[in-house]
Design goal:
mainly alpha; 7 helices
């Protein structure tokens, strides 16, 4: 029986822009920057303002799609080793988010963990989250952090700093060809 939270019912959103944001964040971290460059932040803010509400919602859906795709890849990778993705990914993710109190407030951690569990069990993260109401401004940074942490986790286990980005880019390319 199909769930109303099945990914087939979810909007894909603007995955390209979401991936650009996550990739930019990861590159900044790897370059040793823990804070966003003020000039880069101004460009990001200007870009976000140009999107308007519909565009911002599309990027939000795109980030959720990335989380779903990352968790799908992680689930398959863990199943290949007879491991449970929830058991191995979620505790590490939660522990890392708890070490980031400036970016991820403690009250956002359970929501982000639930989002990842939903995605890890094959449910749409954005549809799962919508059952609790609209996204809040306070959840935007934790959502970006969640996607970034999942991408970084994939990059670490593949020992390839660009694997997660390439994974999504190749999926988008093959979807365009179909």
């Amino acid at each position: 029986m199909s769930s109303s939270y099945d990914p087939q019912y979810a909007p894909v959103g603007d995955v390209g822009t979401a991936l650009m944001m996550i990739d930019s964040r990861l590159r900044g971290i790897h370059d040793g920057r823990t804070e966003t460059d003020p000039e880069q932040q101004a460009l990001i803010d200007q870009f976000a303002a140009s999107l308007g509400p519909k565009g911002a919602d599309d990027v939000l859906d795109g980030v959720c799609t990335l989380i779903f795709m990352f968790m799908t890849w992680l689930r398959k990778a863990h199943e290949d080793h007879d491991k449970d993705v929830i058991e191995y990914v979620v505790p590490n993710l939660v522990a890392t988010m708890r070490m980031m109190p400036k970016s991820v407030r403690p009250e956002a951690v359970p929501t982000m963990a639930g989002l990842v569990v939903a995605a890890g069990t094959g449910l749409s993260p954005n549809l799962w989250r919508k059952q609790y109401g609209d996204w809040t401004e306070e959840e935007m940074t934790p959502l970006e952090a969640t996607a970034s942490l999942l991408a970084e986790h994939i990059n670490r286990i593949t020992d390839d700093p660009d694997f997660a980005t390439r994974l999504i880019t190749e999926a988008l390319t093959s979807a365009d060809e179909d």
